[in-house]
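Q: What would this complex look like in 3D?
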Amino acid sequence: MRKLQAIALMGFLLLVGATTLAPLLWMLSASFMPTGQASTFPPPFFPRSVTLDQYVGLFTRLNLGRYLLNSILLSVSVTAVSLVVNSMAGYAFAKYRFKGKAKLFKLLIASMIIPAQVTMLPLFLMLNKLGLINTYFGVIIPGMASIFGIFLIRQYALSISDSLLEAARIDGAGDFRIYWSLILPLCKPILITLAIFTFMGTWNDFLWPLIVMTDASMYTLPVALAGLVGEHVQDTELMMAGSVMTVLPVLVVFAAVQKYYIAGIMAGSVKE
Amino acid sequence: MPGDGRTRALVVFLGPALAAIGLFFFVPVLAAFIMSFTDFDIYSLGDFRYARFVGLRNYLQLFEDPLFWKAMGNTVYFLIVGGPLSIAVSLGAAVLLQSRLVRFQSFFRFVYFAPVVTTLVAVAIVWRFIYHPRFGLLNFFLSLVGVHMIDWLGDPHWAMPAIIVLAIWKNFGYNMIIFIAGLQNIPASMYEAASIDGANAWQRFRRITLPLLAPTTVFIAIITMIGYFQLFAEPYVMTQGGPLNSTLSIVLLMYQQGFRWWNMGYSAAIAFVLFACILVVSVIQTRLQRGRGE
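A: Here is my prediction, written as structure tokens for the whole assembly.
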């Protein structure tokens, strides 16, 4: 009886798993089909003959290399800058005493409920005045600091013992020395988590780069893809190859560092 | 304690983050609020002095705009139907995965979670083809069980359900992880005691799992609701808000008004209505939970 139950349960979970993966597998499969093959009935699950034409086309005709480069450049720079900025602030909120700290932190947390869309119109005007529309800085600057990032680091840094910091201070280590050689190494797991979150968030972001990047040469992959799908509505296979190029990097990153990503979701869901 | 050095360090540590958040978050929020009471448009874009205060005109106009109510209705439809469905799927997946009968848990967790990390724009394009009336996989499988061709994204009745299915597929893994964390906090002894008392699986789920997961569920309900209110990329890529505006969402309307027609004052008013909705629903959900807890 128990064994039967286990088999039924496993069967069901496998079915759900197959359904979950089906769209991604079909995307991969169709990206290797020659043009037109996906638009036949019954829809073929596998390419009758594997071809790399779509990928070649993406890079030669559609300038995908440029979009890929933009996406990598932006995701890496936003991640690097925001790690430094957020880790410093998170550490300060965890281990420094100053007037109004608790209130300030509460205000920041409470304002997380404000949707980012509210800020976008004035932010666009501001960056426009500064001449930063259609530049990499237009994406990097608003992404420099995040309240969620500060929150994550602060929660983690709270668990670092004060006596350890005191001891370092008595040994003559200055504030920056302590931050650099003690706090950062101790916070490594949460820094990795935050790095993954930021990288993926920037990579997958759509609305803001769509607003800021007005010139095709500055498009990130999602923005480029959303534009291309309008012009190439019939080129199913080509669009699937473009989707693979967009999705694959984040899936690979996720597969490599799954543990940290999951840990971050759990840490983020801890209520005060 | 040496005061100056630490103060200087504090300024260096906190300064950049607070300056960035202040300048690029709080100032824009305030500016948007002011903007929503002006007729800021394409002429003001060149010179801000062309914008004039119009009081509540944008909001009044908004409440008389059938397109706004259409967008609000669609967004609420997406939220009311899609939200609970996606939470139910997440909870179901979490409970099943936590069962002691399941092997290869981490494998399943990985598979179920994979859509969460994918790029929304890319998978929306994939689903657009899955929903293709003639060559799409969905209609093919449905034809095997005798369901006739449905033009998912071309039919105003089906377009929103199609987007809801995509959203559930994309998101359920995220809440599943939070539910799993919640489930792990429920002591196994409670289940054992209930089993000894003769409670079956369903009773254990109703009497132990659900009540003890309530705080987790409220948290999930709030973040899901906030996320679902911001529906944008799916209709942008798949339907452009159509057919017959049946998938026009609040954020899509805001984007179109603000960045396509440059009616930025009007668009700012839409953004604040969105914010107000999110705020009200979060407060209600939090209150409901507190009321139940007391």
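A: To summarize the key features: Chain B has a mean pLDDT of 92. The two ends of chain B are 45 Å apart (CA to CA).
Q: Very helpful, thank you.
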